[in-house]
Amino acid sequence: MTARILVVDDIPANVKLLEARLMAEYFDVLTASNGRDALDICDRTQVDVILLDIMMPDMDGFEVCERLKSNPRTADIPVVMVTALDQPSDRVRGLKAGADDFLTKPVNDLQLISRVKSLVRLKTLTDELRIRHYSTRQAGIDDMLRLQDGRLEEQAQVLLVDSRGASQERIIKALKPIAEVSAMSDPQAAVFEAAENGFDLVIVNCNLDDYDPLRLCSQIRSLERTRFIPILLITEQGDEQMIIRALDLGVNDYIVRPLDPNELVARALTQVRRKRYNDRLRHSVRQTIELAVTDGLTGLHNRRYLDTHLRTLFARAKVRGRPLTICITDIDRFKQVNDVYGHDAGDEVLKEFAGRIRSTVRGADLACRFGGEEFVVVMPDTPAEVAATVAERLRGMIEARPFQLRSGETPLMLTASMGIATLVPGVDTPEQLLKQADRALYEAKNSGRNRVVAAAA
Ligand SMILES: [Mg+2]
């Protein structure tokens, strides 16, 4: 995972220490020795996570954090407060200023790396949603501010999994001002409950009898219906290895006992806000995509969406030095289907073809109808070899199963040809990349159809 981390501290030795540890993990590290420089850097460049010292002359970490979070351009960058003061009141103040996490000096290596990695993952998800939001809507700044609005219009719905009655009661009481809490002591029943009802947050207490709390967390993460629900883990002091594993599993945050009610409220609020923000983005993305940028026949994205979104993905891949591959595919001898069976049959084939593309591509891939019988799949973060495997799988799925027409005609045996091209140095525009893939497709057609051809790098 490569990402750009900004380290902010007024003491050069502290900066050096964190920089060295992060660079050892191949992160790209920027540094600043004061709040102003930090804000400047965030405004100018793409930063994925900020490690922010609290005690600094002029502008302290709380103020830097507040400013970052009130600027729509920088509000999504996760902030980790790094402080020598291990005071619950500071934590709460930091969380109120919008900080996403804390590290206490001297910073523990494993904790540092696992926290940064988990925040980078979260940031990647939010970025992706934001890009799609912008691609579809070209939203104005007002729109973003509205999405950013962190207030809770309604009580949060929290599911608490905790084996002890007394502990359940304490937590319910602490969260009362912000949340309606459903408490359960049976972890298996809790998974069903989480899948059935739309919770904003699941809190898992590690005190479960005869049950591995991490198993519960991993089940929640893997179910389609619960995978976006944030999880907050309550752990014992000294459970460091467990925390690290939990964060690796995708647990969003943890809190160590004895519980400070304020900290619990603040951490719960942070997770709920983030979830609602992402929910709203996802919803808005879904709505606008459905209306404006969907191909009416196949339900895939249309050419217009592809043009906007590919430009953004292309720019991002360039800036970050990540791979990006596109695949253009075209149904072989499609004209004959129309000529022999009519255009309705042709439409049926296109729909079925689109359905097979949809079931073949991976989560982050973008599938579009390019026009006519041509389709494009954009594969972010995917090198050519992997993309070739995906394309080959799709080619096989087209060939393997005949296309059944509603009219009851003999099922049609069809094939498709595919051309793929990967972003390499020298390719400067999305149009060039598309042209290369198109050329590869042409070659696939010319050399006998029903095959995948990769553009020469
Ligand atoms: Mg300091």
UniProtKB/TrEMBL annotation:
Q: Any keyword Ribosomal protein?
A: no
Q: What class of enzyme is it?
A: transferase
Source domain of life: Bacteria
- Which reaction does this chain catalyze? 2 GTP = 3',3'-c-di-GMP + 2 diphosphate
Segment forming the signal sequence: none
Please state every residue range assigned to the domain named GGDEF: 322-457
Q: What is its EC number?
A: 2.7.7.65
Instruction: Note the PROSITE patterns from the entry.
Output: GGDEF, RESPONSE_REGULATORY
Instruction: Kindly list the positions at which 4-aspartylphosphate occurs in this protein.
Output: D53
Instruction: Look up keyword Cell inner membrane and say if it applies.
Output: no
Q: Which UniProt keywords apply?
A: Nucleotidyltransferase, Phosphoprotein, Transferase
Q: What Gene Ontology molecular function terms does this protein carry?
A: diguanylate cyclase activity
Per UniProt, residues of the Response regulatory domain are 4-120, 157-272
Could you identify this protein by its name? Answer: diguanylate cyclase
Q: What is the lineage of its organism?
A: Bacteria, Pseudomonadati, Pseudomonadota, Alphaproteobacteria, Hyphomicrobiales
